[in-house]
Amino acid sequence: MIQIADIRFLTPMFIIAAAAIITLMIGVFFKKSQATIIFICVVSLILSIYAYSKIFEEGVNIINNTLRFNITSNAFGILILLAIFITLLASKNYLENTGIYFIEFYSLLLFACLGMLLMVHGNDLIIIFLGLEMMSICFYILTGFMRKKIQSNESALKYFLLGSFLTGFLLIGISLIYGSTGGITNIINVFSNTQFFKSPVFIIGIALFLIGFMFKIGIFPFHMWIPDVYEGAPTIVSGMMSTAGKIAAVGTIAQIVFSSENLKDFYVLFAILAVITMLFGNVIALAQSNLKRLLAYSSISSAGYILVAFAAMNSSSTTAVLIYLFAYLFMQLGAFIVVSIIEVENFSKESSPKTDIENYKGYAKKNPFLAFSLTIFLFSLAGIPPLAGFWGKYYLFYSAIISNKMFLVIIAIIAILLSILSVFYYLRIIVNMWFKEPDEPGEIQKKDYSAYFAVFLSLAGTIVFGFIPQLIFTIFKIK
Fold it and tell me: Max alpha carbon distance in the chain (Å)?
């Protein structure tokens, strides 16, 4: 039962839920209400972030221990809201120019956001499952939003079928955990009980539960959906899924794994999966000619970097994951937004979106700002100092190095080498933009200032938090 004192902790979710329902109703009953709906979405996201600032330092479990609010979960919640906010700014012009400007897009975006917030605050496996499904169903629909494009429909169908199949793994895992423990509420205590880990049924349940989240994060061998789905989905949706979706999945599972001393015995498994995922993502990315697929494989390799901190599983791991996801939010989403703007310039209703790397030849002469922004985002993804991505990777690898285990130190060295490998495929894009002649010279005339502002915010986050990384510690009150 909800207590009066609990309401202030639920305020961010209440605001998003109310905005999602209101925008849906306005879209149904009022025509030409786009400006009003966008205004409501923007205000609701800002108010939700403000509401988080009022409860940030408090740690409490509410509604019979089914939801938890502490510095870590609140930080992940704010990152999700930031990702949705930046996506919202960049979406209007893209949707209009690609012929998919349907009002329900904004409601789906907010409902997905609500599901993600439930995930990161869930202290009950059923609550986490409900949040995951709310997010996933919205993602399935948004992936196929280009309903007249065969590739978009194929991507949505593939995502739906694979996602539904892996949901079965997750549910069976939850059932086995419940059957062997007799409870699925206050999961931190459940996963911290050594007695439960003596049960093979419980171990199998945990394995199936983790597999479900590995699919959402994009860990090898559960990554197969990512390149096709990201390529077929609207670019602005791909950017949102690769950032907000990953933050929600990683934030949920990280809080469970890092709180359990018993899972430290599985560090070798996490380390092996990290190496395979990093290796696969970076090597396959070298062969890509489509920029959206390249960014998709880059997202897979990023999941591998995050697993390095899971393998370390020490006091620095949570901080490392949080800092990396903070940097990842700006650089990955910023890169996708730039791609979406350029895609709109070359969009044809009769053909597939032109997102091949070859289309970026000489783009710096057409639009120096976007070319510069994409260059910064790609350098940051590669981990070039002093950008935010460098510090994100630094803390991930540092968490492994200070573990005092030679095996994890070797894993960190492999991660650094594979990170250097990523520079080569990012440089291909940068060389095309700055050192080759454009096929069609000329400056872009029509500019979407809302999307440009989204790029500017992402660029500012990538640069400012790169030069002043201690700001991240101040914002999230990390000690």
Answer: 69
